[in-house]
Design goal:
By secondary structure, this protein is mostly beta strands. The protein has one helix and ten strands, in the order ββββαββββββ.
Length: 192
Amino acid sequence: MAGAVQLNTNLLSNGAAEKGEGSPDGNTVLPVPKWTTEGNFTVVLYGAPDFPNQDSPGPAKRGQKFFAGGPGNALSSISRTLNLKPLAADIDAGVVQGTLAGYLGGYSSQEDHADVVMTYVDAAGVELGTSSLQTVTATDRANVTGLLKRKAVGDVPVGARSARVVVTMTRMAGSYNDGYADSLSLVLTKKP
């Protein structure tokens, strides 16, 4: 399990795709530091031909790179598991909530998309609950290449000892998997 867990901080290290290299054309499949990858999931530079650029809809304070589903595959993903044991007392007191957020998107009128799902798991490996971000469709984007913000807030289930986050890119048209994501975050806080 990766990552030191603290309240009031983004637990998804490299959630903005800024660590490591970025592909200048989207066709180079690059490692994604801090994440486990499947398929041709990659990191692309903003402004690569036919991809979002710095003026496309997306994070106001974006870096130089974003996540993309990658070339020649219909399905690709990244995942990571966070150890929540240091927060066990607060979690079991029922006073912790989680905010999952990020920018998700795709290309033009294509329905390629990103799905982000977080699953809370107890010490025995039993799934206790999930939280997910609403998928961004081409209609949501007005058929414009770019990314839109999504956010989900919910209680961390009593007994949770880890959280697994999976980002899945799905190709619906064309040959490139144009599911995009950037500025992914998971922040745990005490409930007001």
